[in-house]
Amino acid sequence: MASYSRQGTGLTGRPKGSPPPKRMTIPFAQKAKLSPPENPALKQAVYPVYLLKWEKLKAFLEKRFPGYTFQERRVNNDQYLFEIPEDLTQEDKDAIAKERDKDPKMQARRAQSPE
Predict the structure, then answer these.
(1) Are 100 and 50 contacting, i.e. CB atoms less than 8 angstroms apart?
(2) What is the mean pLDDT of residues 39-54?
(3) Is residue 79 packed enough to be buried (19+ CB in 10 Å), middle (13-18) or exposed (0-12)?
(4) For residue 47, which of 92, 2, 3, 106 has the smallest C-alpha distance?
(5) pLDDT for 87
(6) Which residues pair with residue 48 across a beta bridge?
(7) Per-state percent for the chain, helix, strand, coil, to nearest 5
(8) Cα 90 from Cα 69, distance rounded (Å)
(9) Please, what is the Cα angle at 88 between 82 and 78, to 5 degrees?
């Protein structure tokens, strides 16, 4: 009579019928206490090119995120595209806006203003 019981393949290197070895896992709470990764995932960010030279934006980003390097890239809609470790805050965006060059046309208009 044929035996229809399950047979081990012998490829696991353990005796037939023995349970698999326990995995060495770290509990989530313990893993959370470990140091953060050295290179956190970078996020893509964009900022308008309008009256802002890349050198000024790059200097701001290097000051804000020391240890990171930034390369100039532009996308179709006249926006700088760069990668940063965390999102820019509204204060960051306001500080970048202050770095913009003054528009010579606007200054000429103000000089001609009757005020």
Answers:
(1) yes
(2) 85
(3) middle
(4) 92
(5) 92
(6) 79
(7) 30, 10, 55
(8) 22
(9) 45
Mean of pLDDT over the chain: 78
Residues 57, 44: Cα–Cα separation, whole Å: 15
Q: What is the DSSP string of 37-96?
A: PSSPPPEEEEEE-TT--HHHHHHHHHHHSTT------EETTTEEEEEESSPPPHHHHHHH
User: How many other C-beta atoms can be found within 10 angstroms of the C-beta atom of residue 82?
Assistant: 20
Token pair 């965006």: residue = 93
Nearest to 79 by CA among 115, 54, 112: 54
pLDDT above 70 for 52: yes
Q: Which residue has the higher pLDDT, 40 or 16?
A: 16
- Angstrom distance (rounded) from CA 93 to CA 99: 10
Q: pLDDT digits over 63-104, tens only?
A: 999 988 888 888 778 899 999 999 999 999 999 999 888 766
Distance CA 95, CA 61 (A): 11
The predicted model scores a pTM of 0.55
